[in-house]
């Protein structure tokens, strides 16, 4: 079974071809930071209000370390315990994508914050900005929850692993990052920060694939070991998601203050609760909030975007990875 201890190295016969196809799809979605033109955003930043600049500075400070935290959990926990070589192919690709995201946010900070001291503060946000520190501590607590487990021998250990996996899929990539993306797309809906929005399109696509891969691992474990998915696990996941919503709401209060046209703490509350219910539904668990999505600009973000004529490159771009052509072939 997928969570059996060990390190299976055999790709044939392939036990989980869906994981391999996800790896191939990720390869087709390759992009590089050099393709994102952030310099077009500088004029927008220069004419923003002080409150808008505060929001952007806090947002990029969160981005500066968010993907590094995800990558650490992937290396320390997920790769060790998901025992299928085709799944580990995908996890290897995910680690590369997290590195690209880290590079993107490094470039973002270097462009948006020309003052070296401001950049240093942004990279140290987990130490001195309470709303970001609280989210980081939530992440670290779940990383540490299985750090000492070398082999998933017992049902209890497997449940702990599932909680870690669900936390990073549903709460961190599926809630913390989705909340951050909402601020980016709010600016885009006002015709601002098109460079940031372009790069975020590609990050959003990657993160959505990461989340769906993790949920497919959960689906596989549920099919193989249904006894792990009891009422206690459902209650633990619901409490975890409630805590993540509250942490992200504290971040929203920091960013939004008294609110701006089209972006307020109450709107973010509704959006985060709406997203949380989506994650619970994907896990086959009861909804918690019954909230609606207040942001029209986010309604199409869960599907691959159509080409934007004014973008330098469409976010749906894919790199071909299959097919051979010989020079004597008839065209």
Automatic annotation (TrEMBL):
It is an enzyme of class 1 (oxidoreductase). Binds 2 iron ions per subunit. It catalyses: a 2'-deoxyribonucleoside 5'-diphosphate + [thioredoxin]-disulfide + H2O = a ribonucleoside 5'-diphosphate + [thioredoxin]-dithiol. It holds the Pfam family Ribonuc_red_sm. Tetramer of two alpha and two beta subunits. PANTHER family: RIBONUCLEOSIDE-DIPHOSPHATE REDUCTASE SMALL CHAIN, RIBONUCLEOSIDE-DIPHOSPHATE REDUCTASE SUBUNIT M2. Provides the precursors necessary for DNA synthesis. Catalyzes the biosynthesis of deoxyribonucleotides from the corresponding ribonucleotides. This is Ribonucleoside-diphosphate reductase subunit beta. It comes from Nonomuraea glycinis. The lineage of its organism: Bacteria, Bacillati, Actinomycetota, Actinomycetes, Streptosporangiales.
């Amino acid at each position: 079974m997928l969570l059996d201890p060990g390190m299976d190295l055999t790709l044939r016969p392939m036990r989980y071809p869906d994981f391999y196809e996800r790896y191939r799809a990720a390869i087709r979605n390759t992009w590089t930071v050099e393709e994102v033109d952030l310099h077009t955003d500088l004029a927008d930043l220069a004419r923003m209000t002080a409150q808008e600049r505060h929001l952007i500075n806090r947002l990029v400070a969160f981005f500066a370390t968010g993907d590094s935290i995800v990558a650490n959990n992937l290396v320390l926990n997920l790769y060790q315990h998901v025992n299928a070589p085709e799944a580990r192919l995908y996890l290897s690709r995910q680690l590369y994508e997290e590195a690209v995201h880290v590079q993107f946010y490094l470039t973002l900070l270097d462009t948006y914050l020309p003052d070296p001291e401001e950049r240093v503060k942004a990279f140290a946000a987990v130490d001195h900005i309470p709303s970001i520190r609280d989210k980081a501590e939530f992440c670290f607590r779940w990383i540490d929850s299985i750090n000492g487990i070398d082999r998933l021998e017992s049902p209890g250990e497997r449940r702990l692993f599932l909680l870690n996996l669900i936390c990073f899929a549903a709460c961190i990539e599926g809630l913390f990052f989705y909340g951050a993306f909402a601020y980016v797309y709010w600016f885009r809906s006002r015709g601002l920060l098109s460079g940031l929005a372009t790069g975020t399109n590609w990050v959003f696509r990657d993160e959505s694939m990461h989340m769906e891969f993790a949920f497919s691992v959960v689906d596989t474990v549920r099919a193989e070991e249904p006894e792990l998915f009891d009422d206690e696990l459902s209650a633990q996941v619901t409490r975890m998601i409630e805590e993540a919503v509250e942490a992200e709401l504290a971040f929203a209060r920091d960013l939004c203050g008294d609110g701006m046209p089209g972006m307020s703490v109450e709107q973010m509350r509704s959006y985060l609760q709406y997203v949380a219910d989506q994650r619970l539904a994907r896990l086959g668990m009861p909804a918690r909030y019954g909230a609606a999505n207040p942001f029209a600009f986010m309604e199409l973000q869960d599907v691959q975007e159509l080409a934007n004529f004014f973008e330098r490159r469409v976010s749906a771009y894919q790199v071909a990875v299959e097919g051979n052509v010989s020079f004597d072939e008839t065209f």
